[in-house]
Structures are given as C-alpha cells and as structure tokens.
Design goal:
The protein is α/β, with parallel strands linked by helices and about 230 residues long. The chain has a domain at about 90-215. It is built from seven helices and twelve strands. The chain has helices spanning about 25-30, 40-45, 105-110, 125-130, 135-140, 150-160, 180-195, and strands spanning about 5-10, 35, 55, 60-65, 70-75, 85-90, 95, 115-120, 165-170, 200-205, 210-215, 225-230. A seven-stranded mixed sheet has the order 4-5-6-7-8-9-10, with helices on one face. A three-stranded parallel sheet has the order 1-2-3. α6 (about 150-160) runs parallel beside α7. The longest helix is centred in the last third of the chain and has 14 residues, at about 180-195.
Length: about 230
Amino acid sequence: MQQGVAVSGRACRDFSTDHARGAAAFSAKWGVPIGGTEGTFGAAALPREKLPALVPIEPGEARTFARLTVRAVPVPHDAARPVAFVVTDGDVTFGHATDLGHLSRGLVESLRACDAVLVESNYDPAMLRDGPYPWSLKERILGPFGHLSNGDVARLLEKGLGDSCRHVVLAHLSRKNNHAELARMAAEEALARAGRKAVQLTLAGVLGTEWIEVRRAGPAPGAERQLRLF
C-alpha cells in the first residue's frame, strides 16, 4: 500500500455530524495517519490509541509526505484552529480552501502560487436571507467567520488568482442557499472581467469531480499531473 496522510482542516464541537466524521474510520481501515491542527484533534476527540498516527500540522507550517509538501494556511471560521491546505510536488501546486468566512490576505497570497484552486462557493445572499434557516444561523453564515458567498469567490477569481492558475473548482455549495447555475454564472463573469479565458471552471458534486489534468503554465515535457479534486 502506498504511504499517505489524510488531512483534516476543520472540526467543530459536534464532530460526529461535521465534515471530518469519516476521518477516524478511514484512518483505522487503511492505516493512514491523520494530519491536522491540535485544535482540530482536540475538538474532534479522535481515539488516538486506535489510530495509526496523528500528525500535527500547525497553521503556517509545512510538512512533507513522500513527494508532497503540505502547507497549512490559517482561515477565519468558527472552528478549532481551522486551516486551508496548499499541496505541491515541486512542480504543480494545488490549493484547497473550504469553510471560511472571508478571504484573508494570507490565504489569497497562498492561493496565488497555485496551478489549481478548490474554493467553497457556499451561498447566494438573497437565497440565504429568504431561505428556511433561523436568523441566528443566517447571521453565522453571513458573518466574518461563517462561509464564502458566490460574490466573495467572484472577487477572488477576478483579482486574486495567480498567473499560473488554470483550474478552479467551486465546492461546498449549499443545497438550500445556493444554486449551481448562480455560482457558475458569478464565477464565469468574474473570470471574463479579468480576461482569464484559459481558466477551466468546474463545480464539484457530492462525489467530488472527475479527473482533472493539471499542468503548470508553460510546462516542460512530461510535467503533466492528474488530480482528482474534492
């Protein structure tokens, strides 16, 4: 079996119902260590004695696993030391950022170096305000430690992408507060305003994406990489 590591960037108090709920089972079944912040480990109450290993990755720190270097980037969210991840093999770089309330300068600068970016486009403000959620939850989502709207992501795509970025994946779309076509339209219009015709836009479904071939801008022969982006 190839060595690897599962990384978890967020855990809330109710770990059993949050995004990382399958991390422990996956780790135990496949013998894969779990990487994350100590805040995430503590909030998740992971059964350390039953897992192969927990690999701490603190915000701002980079760790190397086989050929990949993973750097944790702090993000603003109401969770226990949540982070985004920037992963590189030295040739192609991929940024993964979900569950964050606004685009911090540090995160935007980290994503500028990426050839492919996955970012949440969680909600449409009008749908959220008119939707079924209680107002307390709406305030949380709209707040600076909640989630990114389609408009937030549009601003990132228009002004924050690096020259090498050729692939953008929109993920974590709310089923009740967003619509795929609204997210796509906002992103496409932003890319058009920026003149980024070469950027391929993909929306992630519940099972992730199909294989996406990622190559660095102006790559040397044989520099192609295939990634399945989630």
